[in-house]
Description:
Two copies of one chain form a homodimer.
Chain A (H helix, E strand, L loop, with lengths): L5 E4 L7 H14 L5 E5 L1 H8 L9 E5 L10 H5 L6 H11 L4 E4 L3 H12 L9 E6 L7 E4 L9 H19 L4 E5 L10 H13 L6 E6 L11 E3 L2 H26 L3 H9 L1 H11 L7 E4 L4 E4 L6 H16 L2 H27 L1
Parallel strand pairs in A: 1-2, 1-4, 2-3, 4-11, 6-9, 7-8, 7-9
Antiparallel strand pairs in A: 5-6, 5-10, 10-11
Helix pairs in contact in A: 1-2, 1-11, 4-5, 6-7, 6-12
Amino acid sequence: MSLPRIAVDAMGGDEGVRVMIDGAAEARRRHDQFQFLLVGDEARIKTALDQHPNMRGASEILHCDDVVGGDEIPTQALRRAKTTSMGLAVNAVKQGDAGAAVSAGNTGALMAMSKLALRTMPGIDRPALAAVMPTLEDDDVIMLDLGANTEADARNLVQFAIMGAAYSRIILGRQPRVRLLNIGTEEIKGFDRLRDAASELQAAAPGLDFRFDGYVESDKINRGEVDVVVTDGFSGNIALKAIEGTARFVTDLLRNAFTSSLRSKIGFLVSRPATELLKHHLDPNNHNGAVFLGLNGVVVKSHGSANAAGVANAVTVAAKLLEDNLTHRITSDLAELQARRADESAGESAAAK
Amino acid sequence: MSLPRIAVDAMGGDEGVRVMIDGAAEARRRHDQFQFLLVGDEARIKTALDQHPNMRGASEILHCDDVVGGDEIPTQALRRAKTTSMGLAVNAVKQGDAGAAVSAGNTGALMAMSKLALRTMPGIDRPALAAVMPTLEDDDVIMLDLGANTEADARNLVQFAIMGAAYSRIILGRQPRVRLLNIGTEEIKGFDRLRDAASELQAAAPGLDFRFDGYVESDKINRGEVDVVVTDGFSGNIALKAIEGTARFVTDLLRNAFTSSLRSKIGFLVSRPATELLKHHLDPNNHNGAVFLGLNGVVVKSHGSANAAGVANAVTVAAKLLEDNLTHRITSDLAELQARRADESAGESAAAK
C-alpha cells in the first residue's frame, strides 16, 4: 500500500520557501516513497525544486498568493483559511487530497484552522499540542499539552494521556510509561483535577496500551524515567520553554567559558568531538515537529526557525504517524476507556438493585 | 548598631548537624559580627562547634530532642511547633530572641510553622517562597512564588511583585525590573488574573520602587533581562524545577561526552578551568537560600542537600535581609499602593458627583 501524500505549507517559517522544499527533499532522500503536495507561490517553489531532482514526479504544486503572518491573531487568520498556503494545506487533508499537513507558520493560526477544517475526533473534547524532547537515555519523552488549552480539567487530562501514549507507542515501539506533571509526587500535592485524573488513569490503565506511573516533577522530565508527560497547556508551555531556555543558557555559559582563555580554547578544540556530540543531542532540529493530537487528521507544526534537517524530521514524523495510524490507536484506547466506564455504571446500578 | 542574631535549626537537612554548624561558622568567617542561636541536640552541636574556634562567644545553644521529619505532612509537624528544632528556631524570631531563622528541613512544615508563629504582614494576604537563580549577566534573578500557594489571584500576584521587588532591591542595590510569567508576551495570552495583575502593576509602578515590564516567557528567565519573575506557586515550582533539572541534564550530557573517548578526556583536562567556571556558575550552593516573604520576620530555607558553603550563603541572605530591613521596604511599597487605590476611589466618587 502506498503512503498518502503529505501537504507542505511552503510559505511558513522564518526562512521561507527554500528551507521547506529543501526539508521535503531531504525527507524524500531518507524515504523514497514520500509524495508531496507543495502549497504556496508556484514560481518560488519551482525555483527551490530545481535543486532537487529527487522531487521530480514526487510532488504537485498547489499555487496561492496569500500567506498567514507570523504575528497574526488566529481568529483573523481563520477568515483566510480558503486562500492562504496554511489553510489550503490543512484543507487538502480534509478533502483527502493529502494524508497529513506540515507547516512552520503561526502556531495559533495552524491550530485554529486545523480544528475548524478537521474537527475534533469522536470522544475527544479538546485537541492538544505534543512535542518530543531528548532524555539522558536513548528514548525520547513526549509532553502535552503545550499551549493549545490554557486550562485542562481531569477529563481533558485523561484524554491527553491516551493521545500522548498513542503517539509515544508509535515512536518507541513499546508500551509507554505515562505520568502527570505535578509539583510533588505525594498524593496530596497539586490540584483536585490532577488527583481526579490520576485516580481515573490508575483504574483504567490495566486495560489500556500504556502504564500509568503517577506524578512526575519537572526536574525529572529528561531523566529517561517517563515516556509521556501529561499537563495543561499553561504548565506544559512553562515547562517546555524553561527546558529549552536552560539548555541554551548552559550551552551559552559553556561557550563563554571555553572562549575565556587561550588554554580553554585549545581544550575546546581537542575535545570538539565531545562538544559536537552534546550539540547534536541538544539540537532542536533533531526533535523538530510538534503534533496536534485529537483531530480527524495529522497536522505537524515545524519550528519556525528549523533548518532543512529539522523540516525533514517534521515531515518524517507526519509520515510515521500516518503509516502507524495514530488516529486509529487513539480511537481504540478511547473505546476501551468508555467500555470500562459503561461496565462501572452497569455494576453500580446492579449493586444498587 | 549590632545585628540581631540568627536562629539556626541545626537538625534539618540531609547532612545533619555538622553541615549546618560548619555553614554558620563559614558565614561568620565572612562577617565576624554574626551571632547565632543554634537549636537542636546540644551534645552533637557542641561536638560540631569544637572544630570552629571562631564560633566561641558568638553562639548560644537551645537544646531540644525533637526533629521534624523530611516527609512529614505540615499539619502533623505543626502540632510539635513547641518541641522541635525547627519550631523553636522560628519561635525565637517571634519572641525577639533572634532576628531571623534558617532551616534546611521540610519546606512545607517550615512554611506552616512560620505562618502560624510570625503571622502574615499587614496588607499581605499570603506569604510566598522566593529563590534566586543565576543569569547570563552578572545579576541574579528572583522568582516567586515557588510553591507556598498552588493558586494565586491578581491581588496575590501584585503583592508577590511588591515583595519580590523589595528582596531584589536589597540584593541588586538598584531599582529592579519586574515581569509576570506567562506563555506569551502578547496582551491576550494567559489567564484573566494575569491581565488584571498586569494592568494594576502598570498603573501603580511609577509610584513604587520598581519598574514593571509586562510578561516574560520561561525561556527568558535567565537571559539577564528581568530581575523579578512573578507567578503562582504551581507554575513557579514547575519553572524552577525544569530549570534545575535541565541544568543538571546538560551537565550530565557534557560529562558523558567528555568521558566518551581518550581525546575528549584530554580536551577536558586542558579546558578544566573553563568547565570549573561553568560548574561554579551553576553550583546550587552559590544560590542557596529560598526566602519566605510576607511574614513578620525573616525565615530562610536552606536546600536540604546544601553543603557548608551553601548553608553559609543561606545565613548570609538572612543577615542581609535583616540589615536592609526587608519587611520595612515591603510595608512602604504596600502603603504607596494603598494610597494610590484610595486616591483612585476618591477620584471616582468625585467624578460621580
